[in-house]
Amino acid sequence: MSYGCVTPPDNFPSVPEISFEDMRFVNTAGSDSLIVSIRFKDAEGDLGLNPTDIDPPFQPVTFRRNQAGSLINYSNRPPEAPIFNPIDWVINPIVNNVVVRDTIWVDQNPNHNNIFVRFFIKRNGVFSEFRWEDPPFFTTFNGRFPRLFNSSDGQPVEGVLEYAMLSFGWQSIFRNDTIRIDVQIQDRALNKSNVASSPEVTLNQISRR
Questions:
Q1: DSSP 8-state symbol, 62
Q2: Are 124 and 21 contained in the same domain?
Q3: Which end of the chain has the least Cβ crowding within 10 Å, N or C?
Q4: pLDDT of residue 86
Q5: DSSP summary character for residue 2
Q6: Residue 93 is part of which domain span?
Q7: What pLDDT shows up at residue 11?
Q8: Three-state SS for 114?
């Protein structure tokens, strides 16, 4: 990730603004990387989250509870509860500083992340969303980039952010498909940027070694 400080003009945005810069696919012997680069600017510079930023509103999950206020475990789940998957259930979570030795129903907290990525595949001339959260994958490529400044003093910032997504499955899933990626970021005040879209590409077109 690279960025640079600037003296903002009068119209420098308080809500982050981004634009698409580049996307490349790096094929290696290990996990393959799909790397997205976006240009950003923000008047306060309150961008990024560190691993220690897990207190509300940045906690990873919200624990579901029954009418009595108790946690809902998998063995006593209600009929409407989903089957086990790593998005809706967590194993042995820490709740109020205590490890709960069970599998507990949760809701993922979207504000735990600060960069959001959506994938689209073009079929018969029309793009449709490819949702990693759905079966059989039950995953997400939403994530975090670290704080640009550790001080609490706001300062304007602009630069280029690189975000790498690792997977063994890029080529097996997308093959020669035409894809598009939409990216959005969020500051610590929970202001969401505009959405920046990549060009329409295939993995072969952006492949680098």
A1: E
A2: yes
A3: C
A4: 96
A5: E
A6: 61-108
A7: 66
A8: coil
